[in-house]
Structure to design on (494 residues):
């Protein structure tokens, strides 16, 4: 049965209800207002006593999919949801950022500024210098470029530092709990704790002393380990191994480790050497083998931090269970295997064994979207155009990489300062500076149907022709209306 979630006058969550007629009457008499349609939440306009019951939040942690469920002490499920994270996007975005930074460094702008500062005599030994400027009563702190080498190897990481991927996943769990706590008075939280032993997952009958044996134990060489890992078959096909290939060549710093070696047949070995596309396929295929348990390793990193956060920063009573107990409870109660049903079983694990349980209703679907497209700053960086009588005659002050047209510097050398004084600069407003722009995750009205904005299609004159929703609908932009901007985690309307 679908619940109606309630908040008091101050926005504090109260117990949900299924009294639809009473809710309809409150809305009709203006004693309540609709806060959110998915999930349907109302806020009362009059004072009420804050009387609530204990609600238990069960969390099934995951990298790509997170399941949550909220249960009463009598076993009734009042909320269940499934969240699709964007954790897999983070490594790709980090690679793009590294490429942008690498490109910026190749332009040698920092050293150019240092050389100019040395020539102008503005380098100082201290970090700052104070100057008394006109119109200022107190000296103004001015920062000068110091004459020193780049500091590339003296960065220290704080205690508890996590990789960007792990930190993003940790914040996704924390934000999901905070989002649910806005419309449900949670008092207890149960988290499934699993410390994954990868060697035991490959060999369930492993002995305790065998954990100290590495991948090369009992094998004569790395080639033998590759043979055993690929069962004597080529990485791309079922033919026998003819060559043991370095994924990263030795002359480029490739190692002699198992992670950098693979077995190939004669045909694919020749293709990898001749075709760049096949070399990229090889890196992807071997990388997938090396990251077999990558998702589980990330969970191993964040679980302790999640438990520490819940115990330190939240008022909830925090409990822990394990996957074995969850599985046993699910089988005993005949509950189907899903992320949200696992979360329901996790929440019920602290209840009395005789508590009557039932399968939760269809869960709410949540999807995580990117709120700030920082790389748009790079994509929207266009050339500065200089116009003479409405015609573009130069671009940029100095010639950029792969620029074919003349720069302002070349135009000045050719025509002089008098011609430069007659030029006008075309004003450009980058899209990333537009705070009202529509980002993926925005809630929109697609020709009478409420959905979530996924992307655009068909651009003419710099504007899109169609808006696409997460459900696959494609509607003309003039028939769409923005209802709410992207909020990071968005409920997908049914």
């Amino acid at each position: 049965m679908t619940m109606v979630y309630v908040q008091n006058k101050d926005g504090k969550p109260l117990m949900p209800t299924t009294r639809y007629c009473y809710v309809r009457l409150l809305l009709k008499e203006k004693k309540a207002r609709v806060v959110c349609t998915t999930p349907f939440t109302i806020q009362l306009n009059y004072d009420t006593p804050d009387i609530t019951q204990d609600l238990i939040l069960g969390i099934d942690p995951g990298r790509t999919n997170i399941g949550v469920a909220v249960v009463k002490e009598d076993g009734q499920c009042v909320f269940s949801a499934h969240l699709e994270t964007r954790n897999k996007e983070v490594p790709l975005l980090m690679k793009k950022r590294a490429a942008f930074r690498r490109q910026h460094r190749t332009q040698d702008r920092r050293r150019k500024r240092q050389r100019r500062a040395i020539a102008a005599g503005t380098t100082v030994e201290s970090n700052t210098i104070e100057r008394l400027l006109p119109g200022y009563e107190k000296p103004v702190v001015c920062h000068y470029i110091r004459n020193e080498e780049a500091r590339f190897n003296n960065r220290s990481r704080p205690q508890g530092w996590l990789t960007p991927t792990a930190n993003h996943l940790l914040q996704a769990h924390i934000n999901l709990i905070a989002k649910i706590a806005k419309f449900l008075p949670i008092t207890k939280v149960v988290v499934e704790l699993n410390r994954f032993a990868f060697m035991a997952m490959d060999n369930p009958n492993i002995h305790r002393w065998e954990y100290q044996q590495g991948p090369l134990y009992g094998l004569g060489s790395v080639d033998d380990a590759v043979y055993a890992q690929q069962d004597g078959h080529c990485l791309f096909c079922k033919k026998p191994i003819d060559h043991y290939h370095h994924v990263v060549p030795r002359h480029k710093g490739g190692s002699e480790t198992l992670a950098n070696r693979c077995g190939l047949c004669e045909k694919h070995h020749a293709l990898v050497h001749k075709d760049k596309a096949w070399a990229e396929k090889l890196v992807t295929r071997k990388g997938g083998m090396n990251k077999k348990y990558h998702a589980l390793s990330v969970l191993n990193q964040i679980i302790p931090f999640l438990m520490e956060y819940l115990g330190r920063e939240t008022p909830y009573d925090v409990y822990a269970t394990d996957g074995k107990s969850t599985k046993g409870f699910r089988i005993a109660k005949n509950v189907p295997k899903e992320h949200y049903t696992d979360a329901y079983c996790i929440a019920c694990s602290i209840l009395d064994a005789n508590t009557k349980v039932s399968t939760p209703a269809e869960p709410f679907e949540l999807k995580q979207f990117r709120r700030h497209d920082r790389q748009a700053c790079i994509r929207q960086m266009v050339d500065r155009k200089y116009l003479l009588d409405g015609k573009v005659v130069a671009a940029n002050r100095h010639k950029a990489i792969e620029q074919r047209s003349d720069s302002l510097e070349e135009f000045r050398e050719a025509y002089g300062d008098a011609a430069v004084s007659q030029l006008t600069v075309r004003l450009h407003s980058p899209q990333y500076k537009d705070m009202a722009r529509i980002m993926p995750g925005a809630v929109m009205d697609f020709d009478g149907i409420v959905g979530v904005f996924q992307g655009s299609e068909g651009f003419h004159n710099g504007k899109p022709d169609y808006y696409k929703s997460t459900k696959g609908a494609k509607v003309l932009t003039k028939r769409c209306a923005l209802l709410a901007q992207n909020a990071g985690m968005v409920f997908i309307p049914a």
In short: The CA atoms of residues 142 and 432 lie 29 Å apart. DSSP finds 14 helices and 22 strands in the chain.
